[in-house]
TrEMBL record:
Source organism: Actinomyces urogenitalis DORA_12
Name used for this protein in its record: ABC superfamily ATP binding cassette transporter, ABC/membrane protein
Transmembrane segments: 46-71, 91-117, 171-187, 193-211, 273-294, 300-321
Record-linked CDD domains: ABC_6TM_exporters
GO cellular component: plasma membrane
Length: 504
């Protein structure tokens, strides 16, 4: 549905600005900086997790060493006729099993640390966001859609999960493990070592071609997906208003247009990548690796250059290296998505709040004076003037009604009187004191308001009524309901005052 200003008016639609590749790349860089900022408070604990992962990596090579030792022992027995050393075989098997489970233990311990850190960071980020929203000017909420706010609190804090809970240790594991394995393969025989990674350069080259446009395209995809989410949520949330004013077709068209734009972009981007992706995967698939290693390795065995246990070991290493490299590829994709999410989170955390006075003043009475007040929603070409040079006085003890057509600024003026936002120019004074010089507690002890877009929390009617006074007794809650003429209606509900009602 069309975005409405605080007073119910709808600003003129403007064409969305075109985004260049340079702007998308800049967004990618800002995303990496935002991720780094979010990780800053937890770097110490992430370092502990990385140390645990390094210990796990150190044990990763032990099973391969044990495998070669076991193979050589058995080969020596069957080819040389020497007696089988049962004690040595038992030791090798114990080392193999012990190293395997030790590696798993430290890996799980490392991931446990990062996941606890991620959960605490996610919880704290959401608390910080909600605290920021509570102090944000109402004017910001007229510009930011409910979909944008929901995406930040619910989706974006979840999207950064991989780069917080997995990436710091998984990337370390994916880099250190292949290096250690390759080093051991070279130690066994430099020719077998090179053979183990023979197809990896082809995989890296092919995959790099696919990733060339990834940062810019992922940023563009995220922007278009955010637009789809926003228009869908606005349409669903405002369906009652949309139907009332006969705007169903227009509102649905906005969602359909956003969805079509995303679909067209996504197909144009991803379809050509499928062939490249399949080719990259083919270079490191199991049949190709086995064919290369056993094909060339068998010739080396016949030539007496290497032994069968060494070939089997390096072939297993060749199979293991691509699997950990794929982890890096997956995390790289997660970084692209998380970068955009982190940027939005940082923007929300940096949201400008209404400043509070250092030395608050007390109003002398309840007279409200509006002097030369103007208010503008938005900035630049998207700016919409809601009030222009308004001057009037609300005398203490009087009742004033604001009359005017939709979009004339009535709700905007009311929001300024409650200091939901500050005027773009001019002053609003209570009792001769500018609202900006009155602390929040004093102001709201003098000013009360009923919003035109009332919302109920998803809890009981009783708790909704007592929201401002949680300590209120049942008698006081019923008295308030009677005063508002809703007691009889509440009594008709399935559970009366204990009926759960609302939409969040």
């Amino acid at each position: 549905m069309p975005r409405k200003l605080a007073d119910g008016s709808v600003p003129a639609e403007t064409a969305p600005p075109q985004t260049t590749d340079g702007q998308l790349m800049d967004k990618h860089k800002r995303g990496q900086a935002a991720i780094s900022r979010l990780q800053r408070p937890i770097r110490g604990r992430l370092a502990i997790a990385q140390i645990l992962m390094l210990i796990s990596v150190a044990f990763s090579i032990a099973p391969y060493v044990a495998l070669v030792a076991l193979g050589d022992t058995l080969l020596e027995h069957y080819q040389g006729g020497s007696p089988l050393d049962a004690a040595r075989i038992k030791l090798i098997i114990n080392v193999f099993i012990g190293a395997f489970f030790t590696r798993i233990f430290f890996m799980l311990l490392s991931l446990t640390v990062t996941h606890f850190v991620d959960l605490r960071l996610r919880d704290q980020t959401r608390r910080d966001l909600l605290a920021r929203f509570a102090k944000a000017p109402l004017g910001w909420f007229t510009e930011a859609t409910s979909g944008r706010v929901r995406k930040a609190v619910q989706d974006d804090t979840t999207t950064v999960h991989t780069v917080i809970a997995h990436a710091p240790v998984d990337i370390l594991n994916a880099v250190a493990t292949p290096v250690l394995m390759f080093g051991y393969a070279i130690y066994l025989d430099w020719r077998l070592g090179l053979l183990a990674v023979a197809t990896v350069p082809l995989y890296v080259l092919t995959y790099s071609i696919m990733l060339r446009s990834m940062p810019a395209k992922t940023a563009e995809m995220d922007s278009k997906l955010a637009k789809v989410s926003s228009t869908m949520l606005e349409f669903a949330s405002g369906i009652a208003v949309v139907k009332t004013f006969g705007q169903t077709g227009r509102s649905h068209a906005a969602y359909a247009r956003a969805a079509k734009e995303f679909n067209t972009f996504y197909q144009a981007w991803c379809m050509p990548l499928l062939n490249v992706s399949c080719l990259a995967a083919a270079w490191v698939c199991v049949p190709v690796i086995l064919a290369v290693n056993f094909g060339v390795g068998s010739l080396m065995i016949n030539a007496g250059i290497v032994t069968l246990p060494e070939l089997i070991c390096t072939t297993l290493i060749a199979l293991a290296i691509p699997s950990v490299m794929n982890i890096v590829a997956g995390i790289q994709w997660s970084y692209q998505l998380a970068g955009s999410a982190a940027v939005r989170l940082c923007e929300m955390l940096d949201l400008e709040v209404l400043p509070q006075p250092e030395n608050p003043k007390q109003p002398k009475d309840s007279t409200i004076e509006v002097s030369g007040v103007s208010y503008v929603y938005g900035e630049g070409e998207r700016a919409v003037t809601a009030l222009r040079n308004v001057t009037l006085t609300f005398r203490e003890g009087t009742v004033t009604a604001l009359l005017g057509p939709s979009g004339s600024g009535k709700s905007t003026l009311g929001a300024l009187l409650a200091r939901f936002m500050d005027p773009s120019s001019g002053t609003v004074a209570l009792g001769g004191v500018d609202l900006r010089d009155i602390d929040e507690k004093t102001l709201y002890s003098q000013v009360s308001f009923v919003l035109q877009d009332a919302q109920l929390l998803t809890t009981s009617v009783r708790k909704n009524i007592a929201l401002a006074r949680p300590e209120a007794t049942d008698e006081e809650i019923v008295a308030a309901a009677r005063s508002a003429n809703i007691h009889d209606f509440i009594e008709t509900l399935p559970s009366g005052y204990d009926t759960v009602i609302g939409r969040g």
